[in-house]
Write a structure and sequence with these properties.
The complex is a heterodimer of chains A (338) and B (186). Helix content of chain A is 33%, strand content 32%. Chain A has 338 residues and is an alpha+beta fold. Chain A has four domains: 56 residues, no CATH class; 55 residues, no CATH class; 122 residues, Jelly Rolls (Sandwich); 77 residues, Phage tail protein beta-alpha-beta fold. In chain A, strands 1-4-5-7-8-11-12 form a seven-stranded mixed β-sheet, with no helix packed on it. In chain A, α1 crosses α3. The radius of gyration of chain A is 30 Å and the shape is elongated. Chain B is an all-alpha fold and 186 residues long. Chain B has two domains: 88 residues, RNA polymerase sigma factor, region 2, helix turn helix motif (Rna Polymerase Sigma Factor, Chain: A, Orthogonal Bundle), CATH 1.10.1740.10; 63 residues, Arc Repressor Mutant, subunit A (Orthogonal Bundle). Chain B contains eight helices and no strands. The chains are: A alpha+beta (338), B mainly alpha (186). The interface between A and B is large, with 54 and 60 residues.
Chain lengths: 338, 186
């Protein structure tokens, strides 16, 4: 070991020094070298910080064992932070009790899975629930009172009861959530790699295409997280996550088409005819063709729970267009509105 | 504009990063309680001075940078206590320091690693991530310990370049403190 060679070699020796890989003699050698001058001491200090940074950056993601909720309560108390939620009407003793139950259940869960792996079925306190809507929009109520509307072809899965400090469900498809308020137990929805986290609110999850996910908040606040990106959405806001570019952007759905399956409502406000038709097609699952000019055509109207035929009747008569059915496909014909 | 609209947003951020930050902090201070205290202090500060703190990139980067600085400050204090020096008032890393941009830094490290020759990267990762000792790496890869040393020193040089350009402020900062700390001895 020669500390007087060059920086690169010395740095490597320091790396081992901080990792405790040097022999006692070598350690003494480093200490002697460092004490020889202020520059040396600084260099060793720099190496120490680099060693710490390398460690910190390598391992920070591995730890997930801390009592987050408890520490949050402490921080809140120390800083007199007022929670905007109702404090839980639950006594401290009960909390402790509840925590130990949760712990027991968690271990039961772990054992259950362990046993399943070795093909030994065992009764478990946890039950995996999966609910799907195959033929019609389905309304379900979870044990905590949360109400979910599942659009056609949607499935949710969750563990009953929920694991200790969060209500986590997996979603495939589209749904509207009216989440029961439980400040101490966040509601988390997993959609593939994306997480939507919420404490009590009403919102939609919409999947406009395979690579897009849309969250529309009716009331309250949710946090949308995908890998390392997080974004809050509040009442009236809408976020669209693009899974390809991994970006979240604020979007607007003025016509209400993405939540139509639940609300049965379409709102047009000086909306161009092309946009109106796109929305109607998506909402009712049709494919109306547009023929002729459309210049200057726009509509201001709200359709609330209307049949497709009535909607088209209103649109065509307002704009003086013809709405015809031809061999099972619909055509809207006109000459523009100027 | 205030950082957090209300305590709900603060709570979400807290719960999202708390564990990660404690894990990060622990790598520096190697004491679970201290690691948690450091993170708590950073959050308290963030909440109480949120109108004063300028977040340059995003809250996450701010938090990691602030926790790192707080850890290094803590280690400095420890050193002072150990060497029985007259208590010096150290400047704390404040909101003007250039916090590291975590995501970007991670990407830089990853791309720097990707550019290393395969063997060198393998050696470096065995040491850094799996905590293997040099002689274990040498046995595992059937190479000499001397080769491990050479490869490690080259990999570390690359890491120094990447980290160095991002962590400039804190280096200067710690050097100043070190000089102050040494004045009594020299």
């Amino acid at each position: 070991m020669n500390l007087n060679n060059n920086d690169t070699e010395r740095e490597e020796v320091f790396y081992r020094y901080f990792r405790g890989e040097l022999t006692p003699e070598e350690k003494t050698e480093v200490a002697t070298w460092s004490n020889a001058s202020a520059e040396n001491q600084q260099e060793l200090e720099k190496a120490r910080i680099m060693h710490l940074d390398l460690k910190g950056l390598a391992f920070y993601k591995n730890v997930n064992l801390h009592e987050v909720d408890q520490s949050w309560e402490e921080l809140k108390k120390d800083n007199k932070i007022k929670s905007i939620h109702q404090p839980p009407s639950i006594s401290f003793t009960f909390l402790k009790y509840a925590a130990s139950i949760a712990l027991l259940l968690t271990s039961a869960f772990v054992i259950y899975y362990y046993q399943t792996q070795s093909d030994l079925p065992l009764e478990s306190a946890f039950e995996e629930i999966s609910l799907a809507s195959t033929e019609e929009v389905r309304e379900v109520t979870l044990p905590d009172g949360t109400q979910i509307s599942l659009n056609l072809g949607t499935c949710i899965e969750y563990m009953e009861p929920f694991q200790n400090n969060e209500r986590r469900i997996k979603l495939t498809g589209e749904a509207y959530f009216d989440v029961a308020k439980r400040p101490k137990q966040p509601f988390v929805i997993e959609v593939g790699n994306t997480e939507v986290r919420v404490l009590g609110t009403k919102f939609f999850i919409h999947k406009p295409s395979a690579n897009k996910l849309n969250v529309q908040v009716d009331e309250g606040k949710v946090l949308v997280s995908h890998n390392e990106i997080h974004q809050l959405a509040e009442t009236g806001e809408q976020l669209t996550l693009d899974l390809q570019t991994e970006t979240i952007v604020e979007t607007q759905d003025e016509t209400g088409v993405s939540s139509f399956w639940k609300t049965r409502k379409l709102v047009f406000n000086e909306t161009t005819l092309e946009e109106v038709l796109t929305a109607v097609n998506e909402a009712y699952g049709e494919s109306i063709q547009l023929e002729g000019a459309t210049a200057g055509c726009s509509l201001t109207v709200t359709f609330d729970d209307e049949e497709f035929e009535n909607v088209m009747e209103v649109i065509s008569s307002t704009l003086n267009y013809d709405f015809v059915e031809d061999q099972g496909s619909y055509i809207l014909k006109g000459t523009g509105c100027e | 504009m205030a950082l957090f609209g209300d305590s709900f947003e603060f709570e979400i951020v807290y719960k999202q990063y708390y564990s990660m930050l404690v894990g990060f902090s622990f790598q520096y201070v190697e004491d679970g309680d201290v690691a948690e205290d450091v993170v708590q202090d950073v959050f308290s500060n963030l909440w109480n001075q949120s109108d004063r703190i300028e977040v340059k990139t995003n809250v996450k980067s701010y938090l990691f940078g602030a926790v790192r600085n707080a850890c290094l400050n803590h280690l400095k204090h420890l050193k002072v206590v150990e060497s029985h020096e007259k208590a010096t008032i150290y400047p704390e890393a404040d909101d003007t320091s250039d916090f590291m941009e975590m995501d970007e830094l991670q990407k830089k490290i990853e791309s720097a690693l990707a550019q290393l020759p395969e063997k060198r990267r393998e050696i470096f990762e065995l040491s850094r991530f799996e905590g293997k000792k040099y002689h274990e790496i040498a046995t595992e890869l059937d190479i000499s310990i001397k080769t491990v040393e050479t490869q490690m020193s080259r990999a570390l040089k690359v890491m120094r370049e990447v980290l160095g350009s991002y962590l400039v402020y804190i280096f200067i900062f710690s050097l100043i403190m070190l000089i102050e700390g040494c004045r009594g001895k020299i």
